[in-house]
Amino acid sequence: MNAFAKIESLEDIRLGVERLRGDPSVQPIGSIVVPVNAQGDLEIAVALLRDLVSYNGPYTFEIVLLVNNFPPGRPPSEIEAFEGLGLRVETVPDVWRRGEAVCFSARMVGIKAASSERVVSFDADSRIPNAPSLLDWYMRQFERGAVGAYTHVGYYDLLPLWSVRARITAHHAARWLKRVPLRIPTTRGSNYAVDRRVLLPLYERNLLSDDLNVGPALKSAGGDVVYSGARSLQVLTSGRRFKGGWLKLFRYLAYRLGYNVRMIASSNRRRRDAWYHRAPMR
Predict the structure, then answer these.
(1) Domains of the chain (ranges, CATH numbers)
(2) pLDDT class for 126, splitting at 50, 70, 90?
(3) CA–CA separation, 207 vs 218, rounded Å?
């Protein structure tokens, strides 16, 4: 069954995509890339699209969806619906590359397919409360010479449990520690922007394996990576996977510590090819 069947109308999205793109004969100023897991993100992505087409600023954007994780020869019917909305849709049944997080593999396929060198990346379950402010801010950072930029990421749909609240607090505290005292950019896939001319050479040199080390790699290459914690620029991502439980919290903290150590050392192949990247986990 088509995942869009119970959605009453997508005409407002089609008109919004057309307005966002502007003159199709002219290259867009920016490209918005969104990996879409065909096993669970097809319908979820519609909410993100509605947020994006609320943009009414001076820049033009194309939206590139990278639909992946479906049986070869059996692409989901929603692809045709996405294309009917005026979106650029790239399809790869199995996008994963050994040594990479599968979501990052998908993102890089979309980034390579983008028309613009200025790429903004979100996840399919991202929500953008103020798309005009956020997209304008990203484009201004590029105009000022930044090669990477990102803003605060919060959560929606969190269970009202103390163990979940503790996990989110620990998550944000760890990101603040890296970003402020250690000066390590804390990019994450649900919300960042990159200059593709700087990113792609790093990727081709096997210096990137996850969204987490995009910021540090750009900075190590001599680029300026900027951050804003302004509330008007925040992006929200789904907290539906956080089920609660103190034992799960302790396991998460131990896992996250080891994961960060491996990913920050992006130039060390042995560390990059960790267990998390040895299978197309989702």
Answers:
(1) 11-277 (3.90.550.10)
(2) very high
(3) 10
